[in-house]
Fold this protein.
Amino acid sequence: MTTSLFPDLDPRTPVIAGVGVATQSVDEPGGGAEAIELMLAATRAAAADAGSDAILAEVGRIAVPAGNWRYSDPGRLVAERIGAPAARTSLVQVGIPQQTLFDDAYLAVRDGGLDVALVVGGEAMRRATLARRAGVEAAETEQTGVAPDDLQQPSSEIITKTEIEGGIASAMAPFAIIDNALRAHEGRTIAEHRDEIARLCAGFSRVASTNPHAAFPTPRDEAFLREPSERNRPMAFPYNKWHCAQMNVDQAGAILICSLAAARRLGIDASRVVFPQVALESSLSVPVSQRAHIHRWPSMEVLGAAAEAHLGYALTDIEPVEIYSCFPAAVRVQQRALGLPTDGVPTITGGEAFAGGPWNNFVLQTTAAMVEQVRTTPGRPGLVTTLSGLMNKPGLAVYSTEPGDRPLLVADLVDAATGATERRTVREGYAGPATVVTYTVFYDGQTPVRTTVIADTADGDRCVAQCADPELAERVTREELCGRPITVAGTTFTA
């Protein structure tokens, strides 16, 4: 029994004892492991990482972020197979930050209601896609008549009916719209903007080439990433395929969280223990078109300021950093919100385009990677951020092998985020003159065919509209549309 593990600290202090990941690359349709098997492999790897076979039997809560599978209570499947059948299970739906799963565990451990928690998630989308294309079945464990003990569902709106009717429907469109708003705000030309995105993504690709768990480690240079092509098809201007999260991957991640008292009792070596020093989120959700400043993320700014106040130093002093990276806008806006260098490459994994983007599970991968990273440089903190929805709800965490000068800060800063976020009224069925705030272009193959805008109305409200004019669509991939006057008629516009 280890009793000297940070003996002066509160025994209820939450710590991370072990992390694990599991990956596969299936080539045979119908072959490979299903998602729950990958979750189990990652869980067992986390126990091995902690150096304790006994820790799994003591798991009292298993939290899983919802995924692209049919399990009704995946936590129960994991609990039964790791020898913790009494564990309470939680399933957290899309629209709730992945940071929430960690924060819930930290609070339960700190408050004395839990000794050991497991946060685990995984996807087998490559396996499923390969089987579907081949017309064969990818077997998946069936669960009937089972429900999680705790089902968390978002209560706020992520995307509005008006936005969908105005043409903002694809996953990448809102991020492209945000990125173009940032370009306009900073006064960049379209060519300069494309250069910046290519440079950023090339840097992420270089990092992924050194990551043994990366799904797409082949380095891709700026020239390839900048230009649309058959191998890098345009998606939503200014984004091409390899600017975007690649979700057809088979990846799982698991993190074992426990009290310091449990770590002592289980004999966890001090070199494995990692302390969360900051664990912040905001549950405020404001649809993109309603944001007064579309190029900003005030909620993340609030989290960054709170983290710096608690830590006593600037986030720019932290290295390594893993910024949530589903699309370039996510990285670029967060760099500015947190005061990070705008010419930096804030990743240790390679990001969702190159390391792999297992949908609602990526933060588990990045947290596991960061825990491993900070162990290599004792006392040096690492920063991980979370994004939920369409840059709606943020999360921010700082990890270190040292507990820090203050107890862990866990909070949902929704009130401060609400106060910092200015909104605009979005009008449905608006007709009249408007000024383009931001936009994106959609394609048919390589051909631009449709433009969607968010615009300011003549009386200071907002509207969303689209134009199916290929000539205009092609032109505004070369010439700035932001700031230009248009005429809106309901869900359509002319320029």
Notes: Residues 431-494 form a domain with the OB fold (Dihydrolipoamide Acetyltransferase, E2P) fold (CATH 2.40.50.840). Residues 190-208 form the longest helix (19 residues).
